[in-house]
Every structure is written in structure tokens, then in C-alpha cells.
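Problem 12. The chain below contains 466 residues. Write out its predicted structure in C-alpha cell notation.
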Amino acid sequence: MTALRAVAAVDLGATSGRVMIGRVGDATLELEEVSRFPNGPVERADGWHWDIEALWAHVRAGLAEAMRREPRIESIGIDSWAVDYGLLRDGQLLAEPFHYRDARTAHGVEAVHGSVPFEELHRRNGLQFLPFTTMYQYAADPRIGEAETSLLIPDLFAQRLTGRAVTERTNASTTGLLDVRTGEWDADLVATLGLPASVLPPLVDPGETIGTTSAELGAVPVVAVGSHDTASAVVAVPLSTPGAAYVSCGTWGLVGLELPEPIVTDAARAAGFTNEGGVDGRVRFLHNVTGLWLLSETVRAWEEEDGAAIDLPALLARAASVPSPARLFDTDDPSLAAPGDMPARIAALLGGDRPSRSFRPMFARIIVESIAEAFARAVRTAGALASREVDVIHLVGGGARNALLCRATADRAGVPVLAGPVEATALGNVLVQARALGCFGAGASLEDLRARVARAYPPLRYDPRP
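Solution.
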């Protein structure tokens, strides 16, 4: 490979999305942000949804601009958050996709566990209990019987681009309906839950070509990547030792290890660990920790209260200068699950009143330290369950920019934190496309891809303080 090769990465997060151009060469791995746009829940009469048409318009516009800037783009890859879906009939959505934080999922949990106890579910799908897992959403969705197919968010956009309806396997592993050992749809479980098997599309693996875009976008191949954003992020984690753990930190903190086989023991189930599919058949053995959404929701509430924007870097700098808090809170407390007045709900867990303006730096410090403590606890548990001694934590994603979080995680875990790359998800998306295009020659492994990341984006090291 001598000439630069270019691909487009669509990376959709729960609070924002972006379209990136990725360029790959012998000594080059770089991203160019083409567009960035907001995303988030919208409240309708029947609950919380995603404004999927607005998101689709942003994606199309971003891809068009990417093609204008870089005519050499050879493929497109799409990743997003997990579990949410759109129901289609005659190729059209029946309704706006629900947001995973909508309260309707409680009815689905009751229905599913009434048919199959959680202990058996964990043995079959390997997932931790999360009330918004797709199977619970399906069980609470009265329109699923009307649908011809159900597509997870990245697959929905791939279908709009190519006309082909498939489900990429790493994201399918988050639905609760994939057999953790075979990586195929669990037909017996689907039947037991009374769900229509006909809505589950054929599965594809990262690196497979889904189809080709219309001539309007230049007839460009759409290549399946690790379409669950964490699967793409883990591709770009430059794991430096056999005992390395990772934290993919944004709205959520996905904390765990990459393993060759799932762990579906009673201890793993009790600890709330999940086994999700990774690229190249790897297993992402991890725990979902509520991440920087707690901070962003708190800041959003303060901005609404003040009627003015808050300088987050300045707030975090002030937070770093105050004493370490004596009291923390459980970041996974159910009271923090829904959008709303986050400062008041966190204050209630701490046994105090809604914070005053003067207390905001300390309150921000409490939030960051509580997230760091949850990360450290999950890392220790992952190591114990997998019989691995964790000696370093790679923290990637937006959280890698947060020096206070990185340092607090190192201090609380007692091992170094290597921060970066920030854009791990987009990089993983780009690298899987580039490998599929043959950019790295035959047989390039995940380790080969990660070595490229480490050279192009050397991480920032935070050593634990005594």
C-alpha cells in the first residue's frame, strides 16, 4: 500500500453523531470530521423516541459532503449505540424507534422473565440484565406483529442506503436473542418468548459488503463494521499487555476485557457482566457503567437553570482543585436512568439538597470520582472473573479527554491508565473497512490494526498516585 485510501465512517452516539473521512496509508491513519450533529431523546405523546428522520437527514447530508470533499472514498461503514430498532413493513418504518430509556421496557421485562427466568437467559445469551435489552423492548412492543422485519439502528440506515435488510453480528449480540456460543439467532428462545422469528434478518459479519448506495451518492459499497459502537471502539484499543482492560467511555462506560470465549458462570451473572460479540469472533466481556451522561445531564440542567452555556473544561479544572470527596454515589442507581433533573436526583442519593452554584465544582468532582470508582470496581471484578491480573487500563472515547476522570480511575484502580484515542469508535470503523478493502494485505489481524493505532495516536499515561 503506497497511495492513501479513503473511506467514510458514520458514527452515531446517543448524544451526537458524526460523519468522518478516514484515510489510510503506509504510515498514515487519520480522520477528518465532515459533520457533527446533535442527537438525543425526543418526548412524544406515547413516550421517549429517537427523531430518526432528522438523524437520517444529517447522515445523508454528511455523506454527500464527504463524497464532495474526498471523491476517492471506496466504502461506507455505519456504527451506533445498541439495542434500539425500527420496525418495517413494505420497507417503511411503522413508527419512530423508541429510545432505550423509555419506561415501557418494564412491562417487557416482566413478560420475558415470566417465560424464561433470567438465570436461563444468561446461560443462553450471556448478557447482563439491562431492562432495555432489545428482547424486553420487543416484548413490550404491540406493533412487532405488524412488522415484516426489525432493524437495529445502523442496519436501518444501511437498508436505506442499499435496500438490503441484514443485521450485523456484533450488534445482534446485544439483543438478547443471539446464542452466546454459536453466534446465531436462538430460534428456540425466540419461539419461547412468543416473538415472530420472521422479523429477524440474516446475519452478516464485520468486513462483509452489505450492498451499494444509489447513484446519487456515487454507487459506493456499504461495508459491515463492528456496528455496535463499542465493538468498533474495541478494535481501536491499542491493548498493550495480556492483562490489559479497556474502558470505552462516552454516554456509557463499557468496562471489561477482550476474551476468546464467553464466561457464563453464576458469578459472572451475579456481577452483572455481559458477553457481547466482537470483531473477528472475539468476546467483549464487560460491564455497562453509567458514564459521562451523568455529567452532561447535570450540566444541561444547570444551563437551563442559568439560561447560559457552561464552560465544561473550566468547570472540570475547578473540580480538580477541590479536595477529593468523602462521599460518592452509585452511578447505576435506577433513579438516574431517565432524562430529567439530574442534579436533584444525585443530591438525593447523597442525602443533600440540590447543589448551589458555589458547590458546583465539588458536585462535578463527586460525579467524576463516582464514575471512576465504578470503573475501577468493574475492572477488578472482570479480572477476578476471568482469572487475569489486570495491569493497565486503556481508556478510549470522549472520556479520554477528561484528565480528572483518567487520573481518578488510575488512583482508584491502582494501575496505570493509558488515555486515547478519543475517536476510537470511528477509527475502528475505518480500520475494519480498510482491511476489507485489502489495504493491509492478506491476513491482517486485530493486533496488526491496533499496532497502527498505537503508532498514530500514542496514548497519554496516568500513573496511580500513592
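Discussion. The mean pLDDT is 96. Students who got a different answer should revisit the alignment rule from Section 12.3.
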